Amino acid sequence: MFWTLLWWVLTHVIRHFLGLSDTVPALEPPVFPYDIDPVNPMRLEEERIAREALHGDPRGDMRFDSGIDDLSDAAGLKNKTFRWPGYPGKPQIPYVIDSALNSLKPLIKKAMEQYHKLTCIRFVERTSQTDYVEMLKLKGCWSYVGKRGKNQTLSLGDGCGRVGTIVHELGHAIGLIHEQQRSDRDKSVIVFLDNVLKGYESNFNKLPTSDELKSKDYDCNSIMQYGEYAFSKQPRKLKTMEGKKSNCKLREPYEKPGLTNKDIEFINKLYKCK
Fold this sequence. Notes:
Blueprint: H1 2-17, E1 23-24, E2 42-43, H2 44-55, E3 62-63, E4 92-97, H3 105-118, E5 122-125, E6 132-136, E7 141-144, E8 151-156, H4 163-174, E9 189-191, E10 241-243, H5 261-270
Parallel strand pairs: 3-7, 4-5, 4-6, 6-8
Antiparallel strand pairs: 1-2, 7-8, 9-10
Cofactor: Zn(2+)
GO biological process, one term: proteolysis
Binding site for Zn(2+): 168, 172, 178
């Protein structure tokens, strides 16, 4: 016990002397549309769990009916079939939350509140609707993209308990895809495919321009944008993406508080909010 305690003290003294930290540094957030809770610093182990939950599956966190890589099947494009009832202008997304997620309900409500305050999207508790989102505690953080028909899963497993992560997954449920998969992403970010884990490369596929519906400008701060080390062979060492401009810092969804102005503009355009 004595030697364990001594080792712990010496380790922390050395880390302090070298200027190292046991937490992931808090990032200066961009200006967001209204007052939402700031993002608290994460301990390194907490960040590892959050990263594994979001990036631990080769398929990433988006699910489609017709295949792993079928981005043309995403509702965030031009296909209106996958938009929720009430489109245009008053979309309603029925949902149920499994009892295993009771501890996350306050965070889920906070995430939904952003959509309610800033867009015309309304998440409503399911009564008898046929099509709805079923939130379950499975492995990882992931969701089907857009309305799929009947009950569709949105998973919030261990490591998914950050508001930014939940806002991100709800974004997929309404039909949004990742910012780094825009057809024009190479104008704003550099992708280092050699640093990506083998078998995970499809997470950097770009949308076909013929099917694409996107906001005018690339948004480095978008809640749908992954961080610099997403799917990296050596997280926090080998970058898989990097902004071309110094003010384009790529953060993970769990490091961000929520929707940006550009996210809001695009959602309101997608669902023709008045």
